[in-house]
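Morning - nicotinamide-adenine-dinucleotide inputs below, output right after.
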Amino acid sequence: MDAHFGFTPGDTILITGAASGIGRATALAAARQGLNVGAWDINEENLAGVVQEIRDLGVRAHGVVADVGDAAAVEAGMAATARELGAIRMLHNNAGPPSSVPLEFTEAIGLCVGSVQKVTDAWAPHRPDADSAMVVTSSVAGNVIGTNSDWYSASKAALAGYVRHLAAYRSGEFRSNAVAPGMTLTPRIAPFAESEMGQRVLERIPLGRMASPEDIANATLFLLSPSAGYINGVFLPVDGGWTVTQ
Ligand SMILES: NC(=O)c1ccc[n+]([C@@H]2O[C@H](COP(=O)([O-])OP(=O)(O)OC[C@H]3O[C@@H](n4cnc5c(N)ncnc54)[C@H](O)[C@@H]3O)[C@@H](O)[C@H]2O)c1
């Protein structure tokens, strides 16, 4: 069942990495709240499917095939989303590569952290005058626990720091918060979840299950909503209590 967070139907949210997992769940939950959805992804085929699913819920959706690491694509995508859906009140900075991909450290930090900075700066001029908010999908990785990917842990911790900067110095423009999922059952995590290590993690989660993408979407939408109007600069683990058992 969807929570009611006080959104104004017809407002617009932009979600990066909207074609799968957490981004898709946020997009569909936002649509069920009556929000119009700007959906960005690099996977054209999956994106087209999600855009159709959003429209089937009776709201407007606009898909943009864009790599958030590409500055020109981000600028062009932002202009296209604003042209199509009007002022963009909420931003979910969610896209990012899986930790299982071997990436060169410096390049990966530039991609994962730089892309969030690029999307945020491109979005800022397209907000309405007041009551805007941004949420980054960070992770418990790097912030609370160490994981075996150096660039993943480092970039997720850096994103939490970037959010604190925004919350302190850009609060006149928008609120900024970070959601930190624990192990969440999305396509990228399925092989790990089935591994011996994944099963060991599962045994240590006090709530006895992995997060669903909808669990993360609900926390994200709450922080973006008017119901969280005085919450700025928090780092919210959504992990079933996993990290307090470490
Ligand atoms: N699944 C987990 O357990 C977990 C835990 C903590 C944090 N996260 C974070 O949540 C976010 C979403 O992950 P997910 O599990 O839903 O993954 P997912 O693979 O299901 O979805 C990610 C989507 O982002 C898109 N994408 C990837 N790179 C992109 C780019 N450069 N530009 C535009 N789109 C891009 C992909 O095509 C995909 O559709 C990521 O930032 C991830 O690091 C996930």
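Note: Strands lie at 12-16, 36-41, 61-65, 90-93, 133-137, 175-181, 235-238.

O.
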